[in-house]
């Protein structure tokens, strides 16, 4: 597990002054959670990216409709051996982004799993957003069934659905802007708080700079 901060220290200082939106990324191994975060935070895509070990923490500021927000992201591992740690990250979140792979219908099972899991373990449900990633590979003939199934899961729980490609960047900024608007609309003490009271959260694992993600070989994924 590691904490990752922006390289630019003045930007880092600024975001402590802003209102924080706490987001957790959940989903099956290999669906592209870390790639989505990397595209959003660093505007990068690494086709050789390694599987996440435990969870990594990211901060980024975002300006939506003229207002500044601090997005605080926990990117969790999809590996089952880390599932027991995951409540630490989703319990305190405003938004849970559940990522599925549009090329892999079985990744929707994990989406359903996390919906149940969160529902059973929190007092106040975060907003759930289901994100179908890898849209650059979308082929209607093959993938429409998966998309329709994802839509029906989404409708059943009254969540939002969005589609992205971490590879091309399609839909990534829009997705984070939309979920920020969603939180603003439902502003309350429960869903928003200042980052300075929040950042002291314990336990405090080692701090690393962006780009030195604690990872292991992709072959060990799931
Ligand atoms: N074509 C394409 N490949 C993607 C996209 N997003 C991620 N990938 C690839 O999918 C694989 C898995 O991506 P990760 O970001 O590591 O997935 P993850 O969900 O973080 O996986 P874990 O950390 O193991 O849970 C990598 O080979 C990525 O390069 C995308 O939008 N399009
Ligand atoms: Mg990852």
UniProtKB/TrEMBL annotation:
Alphabetical list of Pfam families matching this protein: Ras (PF00071)
InterPro entries assigned: P-loop_NTPase (IPR027417), Small_GTP-bd (IPR005225), Small_GTPase (IPR001806)
SMART domains assigned: ARF (SM00177), RAB (SM00175), RAN (SM00176), RAS (SM00173), RHO (SM00174)
Keyword annotations from UniProtKB, A to Z: Nucleotide-binding
The protein's name: Ras-related protein rab-5c
Organism: Anaeramoeba flamelloides
Lineage: Eukaryota, Metamonada, Anaeramoebidae, Anaeramoeba
